[in-house]
């Protein structure tokens, strides 16, 4: 290994802990003093001098001479690779990408060819198709007289492949032919690194290329029509998370912001991002944790920045090409990225970015268009994406293949419509409590219900709530015409509806709202206060203690169902009782519901069919599922609560120790995000088996957060569940995950 290449390896990996910038500074100064712009404009004598300076940097930091024994150099380079495995950025990268269970990394040692042997040499990186759009055209970058890391590190902004075609036509033709051979062999879009040493082409490396969601879908659809892959293989070529990117909003009207465009860089990763400007990865993470949308602006990104890049809505860099670190990483995550925007001058010390006359300070809003490379002042309006074109074709293949149904968790008619547009086959969970937060009047009526001391007072408050609930249910039934709508009775602890603030404020607000005396309010609040509300007065315990509550909700559901049915809508209501642990609890609630149904049907002179079932979210319910299924017509696993109660981790407090558990490898992933198949999954299997043994027609689904998480969806499909239900945005992801497990 040559000294310069060892040093460059050392720079990249921070061998011996010397920061990259210490070397970069010397190089920049040298170019400045020689009056040249490019590294390659430096002469051999300049480089020799630079090497001496680099050695001095080493000596200053390490207190010893740079080792001249090649074996020692090799040893250090290898150690650096192994050490890089445990660097904070590598740990962060693995955690973001959920790469778990690996023991370490390997080191390959091989001879090098040199792209920096003059103007008949060069180096490049390419994708066999455009990784942003999927277009079937070589997409890459090339640098004459340079080594590979000059391209990927984004230090020099490279030129496109046409440069190579013009100055090294033979090597270029061979490269094109090799790309075709490799695509045919691997049946995928490839990411290739190559070097030309004195006009001779060397293929250095080839792997499956990272791509955006848009690119992934187009490549999969095109490769089917080119006869390169079949539909089943194509289904596996798109990651469920890819769809997430496609379902992000786009700019409502790009032509409307033209006068606000202040710079244009390379369209490195498509999509629209709107956020507040920050200048460091740490700030990006911190602001994001405070719920802010941020745009990370850097001269160039380095692997240390991965955490901030992931936290940011968009990334803007002054340097680096389409295959630079920022671009590749951003595309892999579907983050919008504009790179190589040479019009911007980033001043990290002052926390400003200067673009001509415009100065943008930290915290100011900008918008990025990752498909055009435009940098736009202010917050530009976004519009929701649509499932059309290639994506529609691709999703229709997924739907043909999958066996498990995909429903949505939706609480409003708007959400229900969005879910339907995203391909939901019904609503698997409508959380009725969310409707109570929709307006001040509703919330006030709920509070009157909670504060009521007598049944009469409670009934009077419930009478106020009934019309609100009925009209929401009507909207949802209409939006879901022909599909089942699963409505859950009130579930959360009642104190969640009380005002926030200190006790004095709460009492004064409630006294005004309800007209009750202060001491009455105070005593009621004390009664409602719980040490452990998640395990307290919630779920079916509410409806059993206050039957009039269940009756009001059932009445609103049946009245809405009948009125919609009278208007020609096909309604399929399914009423779900939450937090059941014993068959007696369910029996109690079912009797109330069925009685209300009879009453409403006779009052309105119709009969509709409907189902009553329960959530399975208490471990005991899973174990006595056979007894529960004697009454329940369906089960829906509430895997949020089931996880909470199986692990004994509070959903609200898990954040205190979960990061420690993850970093120590005690848990491989957050069980509230990725289903714990071994424990919680076992309960799901037991309950499904026992439930279906007692009632073979039992419909079984899941409506916890795991319903939209790909690996969990695969588990539910294999466990034989009838459906998963997830947020409307994740419906396409679940549809694809379900298809992938089927192939
Ligand atoms: C669940 O517990 O999984 C569930 C869907 O109910 P919630 O999140 O409303 O408690
Ligand atoms: Mg629950």
From TrEMBL:
TM stretches of this protein: none
GO molecular-function terms, A-Z: ATP binding; kinase activity; metal ion binding; pyruvate, phosphate dikinase activity
Alphabetically ordered keywords of this record: ATP-binding, Kinase, Magnesium, Metal-binding, Nucleotide-binding, Photosynthesis, Transferase
Domain (PEP-utilising enzyme mobile): residue spans on this chain: 292-373
Cofactor(s) listed in the protein's UniProt record: Mg(2+)
InterPro entries listed in its UniProt record: PEP-util_enz_mobile_dom, PEP_util_AS, PEP_util_C, PEP_util_CS, Phosphohistidine_dom_sf, PPDK_AMP/ATP-bd, Pyruvate_phosphate_dikinase, Pyrv/PenolPyrv_kinase-like_dom
UniProt keyword annotation of Ribosomal protein present: no
Pyruvate phosphate dikinase AMP/ATP-binding domain segment(s): 72-162, 173-226
PROSITE patterns tied to this protein: PEP_ENZYMES_2, PEP_ENZYMES_PHOS_SITE
Residue ranges occupied by any PEP-utilising enzyme C-terminal domain in the UniProt entry: 387-742
Any single biological process term in GO: photosynthesis
Reactions catalysed: pyruvate + phosphate + ATP = phosphoenolpyruvate + AMP + diphosphate + H(+)
EC number(s) given by UniProt: 2.7.9.1
Family, per entry: Belongs to the PEP-utilizing enzyme family.
UniProt protein name: pyruvate, phosphate dikinase
Organism of origin: Populus deltoides (Eastern poplar)
Source taxonomy: Eukaryota, Viridiplantae, Streptophyta, Embryophyta, Tracheophyta
